[in-house]
């Protein structure tokens, strides 16, 4: 069963993610070449997050059976 705290945490996480995309509009308005720089920043940050997630997952997963829990 899902409790109220889990629902509240999921709702808060979703709102926090939406706020980040909402703030991207304001940041894009202040940039010189937003059409070039925003996609570049998104793609670079996705790469960094993926690499860090895999590294962290391997570190945590090694204590819990290797990569089985990551992939």
Question: Which structural traits does this protein have?
Answer:
71 residues; mainly alpha
In whole angstroms, how far apart are the ends?
A: 26 Å
Helical/strand content category: mainly alpha
Largest sheet: none
The total count of strands amounts to 0
The chain-level mean pLDDT equals 78
Round the Cα radius of gyration to an integer and report it. 17 Å
**Succession of helices and strands:** HH
- Please give the share of residues in helix: over 70%
The low-confidence runs, each spanning 5 or more residues with pLDDT under 50, are none
Shape: flat
Strand content: under 5%
Number of helices: 2
If you had to describe this structure to a student in words, what would you say it looks like?
Helix content is 80%, strand content 0%. It contains 2 helices and no strands. The chain has helices at residues 4-30, 34-63. The longest helix is centred in the C-terminal third of the chain and has 30 residues, at 34-63. The protein is flat.
Sequence-ordered SSE layout with sheet pairings:
Layout (H helix, E strand, L loop, with lengths): L3 H27 L3 H30 L8
């Amino acid at each position: 069963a899902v409790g109220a705290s889990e629902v509240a945490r999921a709702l808060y996480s979703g709102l926090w993610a939406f706020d980040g995309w909402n703030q991207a509009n304001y940041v894009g308005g202040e940039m010189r070449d937003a059409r070039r720089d925003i996609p570049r920043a998104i793609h670079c940050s996705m790469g960094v997050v993926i690499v860090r997630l895999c590294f962290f997952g391997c570190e945590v997963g090694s204590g819990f059976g290797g990569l089985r829990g990551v992939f």
